[in-house]
Specification:
Blueprint lengths: L5 H12 L8 H9 L6 H13 L3 E5 L11 E5 L3 H10 L1
Antiparallel strand pairs: 1-2
Length: about 90
């Protein structure tokens, strides 16, 4: 993870810091993360999808029974988060 560009590391760091209710969808997560980084919500969303495509995170369909249509996806890290957070903080 530390080989990623700085902005992607920052997005990952902010993703891990979100509360569960802020991670209900990629859209919600990107809006919350954009408040903490110098990137637009659209750019953050693109980065989150790219991280999922690269296997760093995994898209998981969120359970949703209250709305019609396709349920949103949320992201789960596919790496040791504690190690990443400690190394990220040490930089």
């Amino acid at each position: 993870m530390l080989a990623l560009p700085e902005n992607r590391q920052q997005v990952l760091h902010e993703l891990l810091a979100l509360r569960p209710d802020q991670q209900e969808s990629v859209q919600a997560a990107s809006q919350h993360i954009a408040k903490s980084v110098d990137l637009s919500a659209t750019t953050v969303k693109r980065i989150l999808y790219e991280l999922a495509e690269d296997g760093i995170t995994r898209r998981v369909t969120a359970e949703r029974v209250d709305r019609k249509g396709r349920p949103p996806s949320r992201l789960e890290p596919q790496f040791p988060t504690v190690v990443f957070e400690r190394l990220f903080a040490a930089q």
